[in-house]
C-alpha cells in the first residue's frame, strides 16, 4: 500500500513536469539543436568535422528507396528485393566546392514499421519522398508521408523532394507525369523523376536536397542570431498547433 | 598497405543480438582472407562475417547493447573507421514472441495491485492509468530516457521505479486531459483498495462462499477419519511396518549373503585378472633374466613401479618387495657383468643403460671406465708377462746350443714382433672401447656424475697412464736402451738384413695401426703425442740400426779386400772397396728410406732440421765414411812391417826387379802396388764415390751430410798424401841412394882424359830405375802415375844437384861428361820435370864450365843424337802411360 501511495505522489508531481515538457517540446528541440550546433561550431573546428546533412528516405515499400540510396552511395544497383528496416549511411561529398557529410537514413516502407517512423523523422533535416511511377498506390501514400513529416517536424518549409522513381520503366508508367507535377506544385516542392537502375537523376535529387538543407540551415542560424522575437512568435505558433 | 577500411553504411542500423546486418563501405578487404577483424559495438563478429565484396560484408551482430561503431580490420588496410553506428538492444520478450533469447523462468514478483499472482505466461503489464486505448504509436527514444533518469527504471515492479520514465515511455503523446483522467482512475483504484473488508467481501462474495463450503467439507472429512482410525494411528502403522521389514529380512538374508559371497569372489577374481601383470611379475622377471632380455625386465619393473609404487595394499607391497629384491640381485648381477672384462662396448653400454634405468646408486659408467682401464693395464702386463715367459722358454730351449744367437737376435726376434703386435692390438681395441664410452659418459648419456670436476682430469690421467705404460712396454720391447743397447745394435748384425727389415716394417706397421686407430678416436693430443713419440723413437732406432749396420759392414771391409783390380778409373786402378762402400751406404739409406723415413699420419718428419735424428744420421754417416778411411789406412799400413825389409833389401836395381817380378807372379800384390791401389782407391773415393754417395741422399730426400763428406774428403786427401809420401819414401830413397855409388863406381873408369862418347852407366841406371818406377806406378795408377814419377824425378834431380855441388868437375873432360850426362838425363825425364827439378838440373849445369869450342858442342850433339836413337824405346816407355800403349 505504501508503494502505491508513493507512486501516486510521484505521479502528481510528474504530471506537472510532463505538462511543462509537452508545452515546451518543440521549442526545446529546436533550441537544443541550435544550441548544440552553435556549441559544436564554437568548440570544434569546422574543418575537422564537415557539416552534416541528415537526409531521410521515405515512401512506400518497394518503391526503390534503398536502391536509390545504394546507387548514390556505392554506384551499385541491387536487383533482389529485401525489405529494409532502418539503414544508416554516411559519407563525405563535395557540395558546390564545400566538403560536407551526408547522412542517409533509409527507412522502412512497410506499414509494419509505421509506428517507429515518428522517431526517425524527428532527426531528419531533409526528406526524399519516393514513389514508383508504376505504382499509383505508392503515389497515393506520399500524401500520408507528407502529412506525418509535417506533423513531426512542425515545419511547412522543411526541405523536401518528391521523387518519382523507376523512370526507366516508362512503358509501365501508371502515374501520369501531370499528376505528379500537380502534387509537387501543391506542396511547393520540386519534383524529380529518377531511375536507380540507370542512375538517372540520382545524384541530382540528393544534391538538390542538400542544397535546400544548407540554405535552410543558414536561414536558421541567421534567425537564431538576430531575431529573438521571431523565435518567441514561432514558439507561440507551435503551442497553438499542439 | 592499402587504405584503411571505412564503413559508410549499415543495414539495419539497430537490432537485437543476432541481427543479420549488411555492412557497406570502402576498402573492406580485397579477399575473404584479407578480412581479419570485425567489431560491431565492440563485439567481435568476425565469426559470422561473410565477405561479399570490397564494399560489402554481411554479419550478425553480437550481444552488444547501445550504440557503437562498426570497425573492420583488414590485413591490407589495418584497422578501419566507421561513419555510421549500430545500436544493439535487448528485446523484452513477450509470451507470443518467438525469441532465441533465454527467458528467466523465475516467477515475476507479485504485483501490489493484482488480486492474485498471475502465471508468467499470462502476464501482461497492467495499465495503472487505464489509458490503454492509445497504444504504442509513438515510442519515446530509450536513450533519452536513460539520459533523463540515470538511475531509474520504467518498470512498475522495480525498486528504482521512476514515474516520469513510465509516463514518458507510455504516455508521451497522451493529452493532458487524458492524463488527468488517468490520475483520477488511479486515485479511485487506490481509494477502492482502502475502503476495507466489507467492500472486499462484497466484491468477492462468490469466492468467500466457496471458501466457506470447502472449509466445512474439510472439517467433516477430518472428523470422519478420526472416528475411523482412532486418535493415534501412527504407532499401529509403525509396528506394522517394522514387522514387515523383519519378515522381508528373514526372507532375503540367505539370498543376500550368497550374493555377497559371489560378489566377493567375483571381485577377487577380477582383481586377480586386473593385476595379473603384477602377480606374474616375479616369475616373468626370473624368466626374462634367464633369457637375458633385460629390457623387458626394466620395462616391466618401471611399469610396476609406476602402477603400484605407492600402493597401500599389503599384498602389493609384499610382491613389490619381492620384486625389488630380485631387481637388486639383477642390478648386482648386471654391475658385475659390466665390470667383468672382456666385454664389448655395446654390451657394456647396454648394461650401463639398464643399470641407469634400474636406478643404480653408483656411477655405473664411471665404474665401467675404471674397470676398462684396469683391464687394459692388466692386459698389457699380461701380454708382457706372456711374451717374457715365452722368450725365456725359447731361450731355455735354445739356450744351451745357441745362446749367442739368441742374444744377438735381441729385440728383433719374432717373439718381440708378436709381442708388439699383441700390445698394439690390445691398446687400440681397448681404447676404442673405452674412449667412446667415456665420451658418451661425459656427454651425459650414461647418467652418473660426469660434471664432477675431478672426472675429466681423472680420465685424462687414466688415458695418459695407459698410453704411457704401453709406450714404456713398447720401448722396452722394441728399443733396447741402456745395457741392452749394445746387444740390440749387435743383434742387428746377427739377423739377416731382409728379416730385420721385415720385422722393423711389421713392428712399425703395428705401432702405426695402433696410432691410427687412436687418431680416429679423436683422443686428446697428449696421449697421442706419447704414442707418436714411441713411433718416432722406434723409427730413429731403426735408422740408427741400419746406419750402425752399415758402419759395421764397412768396418769389416778390410777383410774383404782381395786386391783384385776391378777397373782402371781416371784415378788409377781401384779394387771393389769404394763400390762396396757405396753399395753399403746405399743399402742402409734405401732401407731407411723404405722402412722408417716416410712419416705416417700426424707424425713428425724423421729428419727435421736441427732434430736429434738428423744429427745422428750425420754422425753415423761420418762414422761410416771415416771407418772406410780407417779401413783403407789399415790396409796400407798393415803390411808395412812385413814388407819393409823386403823393400829395403832391394838396393840394387836387379834385385828389385827380380823381386817385384816374383811378387807379381805370386797371387798377392806387392806392398808398393797395394799402396798404390789404396791410394787410387782413396782418390777414387774422394772424387767419385763420395759424390755418388750423395746421390741416394738426394734421391731419398734426406739432407746431405756435407760435413761428413767434407771431413772424409779431408781425411782421404791426407791419406793420399800419406800414401804418396810413404811410397816415395820407400821407392825414391833407395833409388836416390843408388845414384851416388853408381856415379862413383863409373868414375874410376872414366877418369882418363879420353874422348867421351857416352854417358856413364849411372845415368842409364837412373833412367832404368825411373822406367821401372814409372812402369809400376803406371800399371796401377794410370793417369795418376805422373805424380809419383814426378816426385821421384824431383828427388833424383835434387840428388844430382847435390852431387854436382859436392864434386865440381875439375877437368874439361869431366865437365863435358857431366854436361852430357845432365843433358841426357834432362832429355830423358823431360816430361816429368817439375819446375823445382828443372831448377835443380839448371843449378847443376850452371856449376859446370861452359863449352868453349865448337867441336865439343858438336860432339855433345852427336852423342845426344846417338843416345836418342839408342834409347828410343826406353824414352818412349818413360814418357807414356798405359793407356797410350
Automatic annotation (TrEMBL), chain A:
SUPFAM superfamilies: P-loop containing nucleoside triphosphate hydrolases. It comes from the Eukaryota. The keyword GTP-binding applies. Keywords: Cell membrane, GTP-binding, Hydrolase, Lipoprotein, Membrane, Methylation, Nucleotide-binding, Prenylation. Pfam families: Ras. It is an enzyme of class 3 (hydrolase). Its main location: membrane. GO terms for biological process: signal transduction. The keyword GTP-binding applies. It is found in: Cell membrane. InterPro entries: P-loop_NTPase, Small_GTP-bd, Small_GTPase, Small_GTPase_Ras-type. One of its GO terms (cellular component) is plasma membrane. Gene3D superfamilies: P-loop containing nucleotide triphosphate hydrolases (3.40.50.300). One of its GO terms (molecular function) is G protein activity. Its EC number is 3.6.5.2. It is a lipid-anchor. Belongs to the small GTPase superfamily. Ras family. This is small monomeric GTPase. The lineage of its organism: Eukaryota, Metazoa, Ecdysozoa, Arthropoda, Hexapoda.
UniProtKB/TrEMBL annotation, chain B:
InterPro entries: EXOC2/Sec5, EXOC2/Sec5_N_dom, Ig-like_fold, Ig_E-set, IPT_dom. Residues 126-877 form the Exocyst complex component EXOC2/Sec5 N-terminal domain. Residues 376-409 form a coiled coil. Residues 5-86 form the IPT/TIG domain. Keywords: Coiled coil, Exocytosis, Protein transport, Transport. The keyword Chaperone does not apply. It comes from Papilio xuthus. This is Exocyst complex component 2. Component of the exocyst complex involved in the docking of exocytic vesicles with fusion sites on the plasma membrane. One of its GO terms (biological process) is protein transport. GO terms for cellular component: exocyst. Pfam families: Sec5, TIG. Component of the exocyst complex. Belongs to the SEC5 family.
Amino acid at each position: 500500500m505504501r508503494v502505491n501511495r508513493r507512486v501516486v505522489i510521484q505521479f502528481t508531481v510528474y504530471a506537472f513536469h510532463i505538462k511543462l515538457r509537452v508545452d515546451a517540446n518543440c521549442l526545446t528541440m529546436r533550441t537544443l539543436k541550435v544550441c548544440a550546433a552553435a556549441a559544436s561550431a564554437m568548440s570544434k573546428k569546422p574543418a575537422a568535422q564537415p557539416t552534416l546533412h541528415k537526409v531521410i528516405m521515405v515512401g512506400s515499400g518497394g518503391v526503390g528507396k534503398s536502391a536509390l540510396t545504394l546507387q548514390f552511395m556505392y554506384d551499385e544497383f541491387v536487383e533482389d528485393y529485401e525489405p529494409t528496416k532502418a539503414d544508416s549511411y554516411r559519407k563525405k561529398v563535395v557540395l558546390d566546392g564545400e566538403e560536407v557529410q551526408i547522412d542517409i537514413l533509409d527507412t522502412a516502407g512497410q506499414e509494419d514499421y509505421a509506428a517507429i517512423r515518428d522517431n526517425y523523422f524527428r532527426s531528419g533535416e531533409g526528406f526524399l519522398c519516393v514513389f514508383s511511377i508504376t505504382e499509383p498506390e505508392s503515389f497515393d501514400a506520399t500524401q500520408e508521408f507528407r502529412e506525418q513529416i509535417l506533423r513531426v517536424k512542425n515545419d511547412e518549409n522543411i526541405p523536401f523532394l518528391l521523387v518519382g522513381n523507376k523512370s526507366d520503366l516508362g512503358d509501365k508508367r501508371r502515374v501520369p507525369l501531370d499528376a505528379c507535377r500537380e502534387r509537387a506544385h501543391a506542396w511547393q516542392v520540386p519534383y524529380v523523376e529518377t531511375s536507380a537502375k540507370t542512375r538517372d537523376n540520382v545524384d541530382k535529387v540528393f544534391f538538390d536536397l542538400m542544397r535546400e538543407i544548407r540554405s535552410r540551415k543558414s536561414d536558421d542560424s541567421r534567425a537564431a542570431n538576430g531575431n529573438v522575437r521571431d523565435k518567441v512568435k514561432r514558439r507561440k505558433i507551435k503551442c497553438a498547433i499542439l | 598497405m592499402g587504405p584503411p577500411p571505412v564503413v559508410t553504411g549499415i543495414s539495419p542500423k539497430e537490432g537485437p543480438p543476432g541481427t543479420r546486418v549488411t555492412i557497406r563501405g570502402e576498402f573492406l578487404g580485397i579477399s575473404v582472407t584479407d578480412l581479419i577483424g570485425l567489431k560491431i559495438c565492440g563485439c567481435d563478429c568476425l565469426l559470422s562475417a561473410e565477405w561479399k565484396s570490397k564494399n560489402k560484408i554481411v554479419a550478425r551482430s553480437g550481444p552488444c547493447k547501445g550504440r557503437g561503431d562498426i570497425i573492420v580490420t583488414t590485413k591490407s588496410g589495418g584497422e578501419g573507421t566507421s561513419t555510421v553506428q549500430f545500436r544493439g538492444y535487448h528485446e523484452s520478450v513477450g509470451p507470443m514472441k518467438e525469441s532465441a533469447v533465454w527467458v528467466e523462468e523465475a516467477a515475476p514478483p507479485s504485483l501490489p495491485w493484482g488480486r492474485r499472482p498471475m502465471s508468467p505466461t499470462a502476464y501482461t503489464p497492467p495499465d495503472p492509468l487505464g489509458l490503454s486505448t492509445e497504444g504504442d504509436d509513438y515510442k519515446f527514444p530509450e536513450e533519452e530516457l536513460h539520459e533523463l533518469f540515470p538511475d531509474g527504471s520504467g518498470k512498475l515492479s522495480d525498486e528504482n521505479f521512476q514515474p516520469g520514465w513510465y509516463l514518458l515511455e507510455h504516455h508521451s503523446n497522451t493529452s493532458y486531459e487524458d492524463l488527468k483522467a488517468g490520475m483520477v482512475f488511479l486515485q479511485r483504484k487506490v481509494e477502492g483498495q482502502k475502503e476495507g473488508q466489507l467492500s472486499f467481501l462484497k466484491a468477492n462474495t462468490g469466492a468467500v462462499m466457496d471458501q466457506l463450503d470447502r472449509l466445512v467439507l474439510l472439517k467433516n472429512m477430518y472428523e470422519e477419519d478420526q472416528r475411523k482410525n482412532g486418535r493415534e494411528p501412527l504407532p499401529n502403522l509403525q509396528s506394522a511396518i517394522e514387522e514387515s521389514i523383519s519378515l522381508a529380512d528373514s526372507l532375503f538374508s540367505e539370498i543376500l549373503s550368497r550374493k555377497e559371497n559371489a560378489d566377493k569372489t567375483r571381485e577377487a577374481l577380477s582383481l586377480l585378472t586386473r593385476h595379473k601383470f603384477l602377480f606374474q611379475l616375479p616369475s616373468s622377471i626370473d624368466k626374462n633374466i634367464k633369457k637375458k632380455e633385460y629390457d623387458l625386465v626394466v620395462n616391466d619393473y618401471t611399469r610396476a613401479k609406476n602402477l603400484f609404487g605407492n600402493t597401500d595394499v599389503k599384498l602389493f607391497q609384499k610382491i613389490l618387495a619381492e620384486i625389488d629384491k630380485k631387481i637388486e640381485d639383477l642390478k648386482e648381477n648386471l654391475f658385475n657383468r659390466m665390470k667383468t672384462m672382456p666385454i664389448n662396448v655395446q654390451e657394456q653400454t647396454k648394461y650401463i643403460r639398464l643399470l641407469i634405468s634400474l636406478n643404480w646408486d653408483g656411477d655405473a659408467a664411471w665404474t665401467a671406465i675404471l674397470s676398462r682401464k684396469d683391464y687394459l693395464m692388466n692386459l698389457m702386463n699380461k701380454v708382457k708377462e706372456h711374451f717374457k715367459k715365452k722368450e725365456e722358454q725359447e731361450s731355455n730351449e735354445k739356450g744351451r746350443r745357441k745362446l749367442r744367437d739368441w742374444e744377438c737376435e735381441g729385440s728383433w726376434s719374432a717373439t718381440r714382433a708378436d709381442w708388439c703386435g699383441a700390445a698394439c692390438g690390445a691398446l687400440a681395441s681397448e681404447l676404442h672401447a673405452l674412449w667412446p664410452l667415456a665420451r658418451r659418459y661425459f656427454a651425459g648419456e650414461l647418467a652418473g656424475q660426469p660434471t664432477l670436476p675431478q672426472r675429466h682430469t681423472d680420465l685424462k690421467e687414466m688415458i695418459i697412464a695407459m698410453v704411457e705404460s704401453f709406450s714404456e712396454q713398447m720401448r722396452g720391447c722394441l728399443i733396447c736402451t741402456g745395457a741392452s743397447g749394445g746387444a740390440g745394435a749387435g743383434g742387428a748384425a746377427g739377423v739377416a738384413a731382409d728379416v730385420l727389415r721385415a720385422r722393423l716394417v711389421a713392428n712399425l706397421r703395428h705401432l702405426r695401426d695402433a696410432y691410427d686407430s687412436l687418431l680416429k678416436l679423436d683422443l686428446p693430443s697428449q696421449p697421442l703425442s706419447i704414442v707418436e713419440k714411441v713411433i718416432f723413437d722406434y723409427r730413429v732406432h731403426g735408422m740408427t740400426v741400419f746406419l750402425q749396420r752399415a758402419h759395421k759392414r764397412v768396418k769389416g771391409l778390410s777383410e774383404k779386400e782381395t786386391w783384385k783390380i776391378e777397373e782402371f778409373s781416371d784415378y788409377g786402378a781401384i779394387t771393389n772397396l769404394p763400390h762396396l762402400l757405396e753399395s753399403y751406404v746405399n743399402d742402409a739409406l734405401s732401407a731407411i728410406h723404405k722402412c722408417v723415413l716416410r712419416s705416417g699420419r700426424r707424425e713428425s718428419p724423421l729428419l727435421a732440421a736441427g732434430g736429434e735424428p738428423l744429427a745422428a744420421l750425420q754422425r753415423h754417416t761420418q762414422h761410416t765414411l771415416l771407418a772406410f778411411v780407417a779401413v783403407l789406412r789399415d790396409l796400407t799400413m798393415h803390411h808395412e812391417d812385413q814388407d819393409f825389409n823386403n823393400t829395403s833389401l832391394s838396393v840394387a836395381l836387379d834385385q828389385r826387379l827380380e823381386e817385384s817380378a816374383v811378387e807379381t807372379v805370386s797371387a798377392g800384390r806387392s806392398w808398393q802396388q797395394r799402396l798404390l791401389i789404396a791410394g787410387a782407391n782413396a782418390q777414387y773415393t774422394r772424387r767419385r764415390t763420395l759424390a755418388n754417395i750423395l746421390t741416394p741422399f738426394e734421391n731419398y730426400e734426406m739432407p746431405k751430410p756435407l760435413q761428413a763428406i767434407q771431413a772424409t774428403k779431408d781425411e782421404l786427401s791426407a791419406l793420399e798424401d800419406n800414401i804418396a809420401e810413404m811410397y816415395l819414401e820407400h821407392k825414391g830413397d833407395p833409388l836416390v841412394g843408388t845414384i851416388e855409388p853408381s856415379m862413383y863406381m863409373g868414375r874410376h873408369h872414366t877418369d882418363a882424359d879420353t874422348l867421351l862418347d857416352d854417358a856413364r852407366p849411372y845415368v842409364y841406371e837412373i833412367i832404368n830405375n825411373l822406367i821401372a818406377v814409372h812402369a809400376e806406378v803406371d800399371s796401377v795408377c794410370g793417369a795418376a802415375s805422373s805424380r809419383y814419377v814426378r816426385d821421384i824425378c824431383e828427388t833424383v834431380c835434387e840428388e844430382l844437384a847435390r852431387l854436382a855441388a859436392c864434386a865440381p868437375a875439375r877437368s874439361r873432360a869431366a865437365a863435358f861428361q857431366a854436361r852430357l850426362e845432365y843433358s841426357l838425363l834432362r832429355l830423358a825425364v823431360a816430361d816429368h820435370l817439375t819446375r823445382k827439378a828443372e831448377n835443380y838440373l839448371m843449378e847443376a849445369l850452371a856449376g859446370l864450365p861452359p863449352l868453349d869450342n865448337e867441336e865439343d858442342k858438336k860432339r855433345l850433339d852427336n852423342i845426344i843424337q846417338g843416345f836418342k836413337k839408342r834409347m828410343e824405346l826406353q824414352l818412349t816407355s818413360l814418357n807414356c802411360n798405359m793407356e797410350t800403349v
